[in-house]
Amino acid sequence: GATASLTAASTAAKGLGASLAASLGPLITVGAAIATVSSAIKTFSDRERDITILRQGLVNLGEGTAALNELQEAANKLGNQTLFDQEEFTRGFNLLTSFRKIGVESYERVAQAAADVAQVNQVDVTTSFMQLAKALQDPERNLSALNRSGIAFTESQTDLIKELMQTNRTAEAHNEILRIVEESYNGLAQAAAEGFAGEVDSLGESFRDFSET
């Protein structure tokens, strides 16, 4: 008798479960749709905000739409090629606009170097952008920070960079700093993005692009 009662109760529970599933199904679908739309809106608004800041930063430097488009393409490319996001590179470019001694034509090169340094030192790319920007802005005070990240500047290289800065040959000094960083770390951010980790990251990058669209 107990077995028969339990069997009946089990049957009733299964029926109730089916009814609940039928009722909850549309609610779950709606909830998923709302979550997807909310995520898309956030992605779009965040990217739009970052681009607006970058546009104004470039205007402050006397640059126009051409430079903005080039940097957007660079951020997208580096986001796809590395384990860092497009948004992080755009914000890195935003940061660089506040360092007046760094030429806009060097931004993409700085971004690549920042990604390489960040990958090797296992830090966020914004930290490396700041570290490089400070070193380029004022090498005399801030080259030592790059030394702590494993980038070795010899005494003669350091003296040359300081002399170039003191004689207002800023572009040459920046080229020398970036050349030394590239010799140490060039392409390591792209190398880290090969294989499964890179595929997963690329999937996330593509989904955010789709969300923005």
- Nearest-angstrom radius of gyration? 26 Å
Sum up the overall morphology in one term.
Answer: elongated
- Which class best fits the helix and strand makeup? mainly alpha
Helix count equals 10
Give me the strand/helix succession. HHHHHHHHHH
Instruction: Please summarize the sheet with the most strands.
Output: none
Q: State the total count of DSSP E strands.
A: 0
Distance between the termini: 63 Å
Unreliable runs? none
Roughly what percent helix? Answer: over 70%
Task: State which percent range the strand residues make up.
Answer: under 5%
Short synopsis of the structure:
The chain is about 80% helix and about 0% strand.
Architecture blueprint of SSEs:
Elements: H1 2-60, H2 65-81, H3 86-96, H4 107-121, H5 125-137, H6 139-148, H7 155-166, H8 170-185, H9 188-192, H10 196-212
Account of the protein in words:
The protein is mainly α. It has helices at residues 2-60, 65-81, 86-96, 107-121, 125-137, 139-148, 155-166, 170-185, 188-192, 196-212. Helix 1 runs antiparallel to helix 2, helix 1 (2-60) crosses helix 10 and helix 5 packs antiparallel against helix 6 (139-148). The longest helix has 59 residues, at 2-60.
